[in-house]
Amino acid sequence: MIFYFSGTGNSAWVAKQIAAGTDDIAIDIGELIKSAGTQAVPEKAERIGIVFPVYAWGAPNPVIQFAKKLKAEKDVYRFAVCTCGDEAGLSLRRFS
Q1: What would the pLDDT profile of 5-14 be if each residue is shown by its tens digit?
Q2: Nearest CA among 45, 44, 60 for reference residue 8
Q3: 96 lies in a domain?
Q4: Is 76 part of any domain?
C-alpha cells in the first residue's frame, strides 16, 4: 500500500508510479482525512510507503498525524519518499 499526500500533484504522480511498479495501490491521505478514516493495513501487506511533499524542510502535519495512527504488522517493510523542488532538508530524518 502506498499512501500519498499531494498539493500540486507531484507526490501523487510519484506514489502512483511506485504503486504501478510494485503492483500495489496508491491511496490519497487527504481523502482519508476528509472521510475521517484511518487506514488499517491488511495483514498480508508486503510494504507500506508514504509519499509526501516537503513543507518547510519537513513532512506536512497531516502526514505526520496520519502516520502516527497507521496500524500495521511490525514485520511489514516501510518506506517514505519525499518530493521537493530544491532541498529536502531534514524531512526524512524528522519523519522517521
Answers
A1: 998 999 999 9
A2: 60
A3: no
A4: yes
How, if at all, do strands 47-53 and 2-4 pair? Answer: parallel
pTM, full prediction:
0.83
CA dist., res. 9 & res. 20, Å (int): 16
* Number of folded domains that form the chain: 1
Which spans in the chain are helix H? Answer: 10-21, 29-34, 61-69, 91-95
Rounded to whole angstroms, the Cα distance separating 27 from 61 reads 17
pLDDT in tens, 52-81: 998 877 889 999 988 888 877 888 899 999
Q: Which amino acid is at 35?
A: S
What per-residue confidence (pLDDT) applies to 11?
Answer: 96
Q: What residue numbers bound the domain in which 31 lies?
A: 2-91
Residue 13 placed within a domain: yes
Burial of residue 91 (number of CB atoms within 10 Å: 0-12, 13-18, 19+): buried
User: What nine digits make up the cell of 94?
Assistant: 524528522
